[in-house]
Amino acid sequence: MPDAAPAKVDYQLSYRSALTGYEVYKEQSVQPWKAANDKVGEIGGWRAYAKEMRQTPPATGQEQPAQGHDAHHGGKQ
Questions:
Q1: Phi-psi region of 58 (alpha: psi -120 to 50; beta: other; left: phi over 0)
Q2: Per residue in 3-31, pLDDT tens?
Q3: Cα atoms in the 13 Å half-sphere on the side-chain side of 3
Q4: Going by C-beta distance under 8 Å and a sequence separation of 6 or more, which residues neighbour residue 64?
Q5: Widest CA span of the chain, in angstroms?
Q6: What is the pTM of this model?
Q7: Residues 6 or more apart from 37 whose CB is under 8 A from it?
Q8: Are 38 and 44 in contact (CB under 8 A)?
Q9: Separation CA 65–CA 56 (nearest Å)
Q10: How far apart are CA 60 and CA 20, in angstroms?
């Protein structure tokens, strides 16, 4: 009985630069720290920023960081 021919595998290679999405540094205006602190207080403090981060959907095309025990090794669960 002859061996079956191996299935043909068609590999599609793609390349995505690590610099995709890189934004050039743009100097920002700086305001006095007192004014910045007052603005943060008006917004609701650090809790407002934390709530905003929980509600913001992840950007498309971006991988989420690994979670859990092996996160610092890049492992997946």
A1: beta
A2: 677 788 888 899 999 999 999 999 988 88
A3: 3
A4: 58
A5: 85
A6: 0.32
A7: none
A8: no
A9: 15
A10: 13
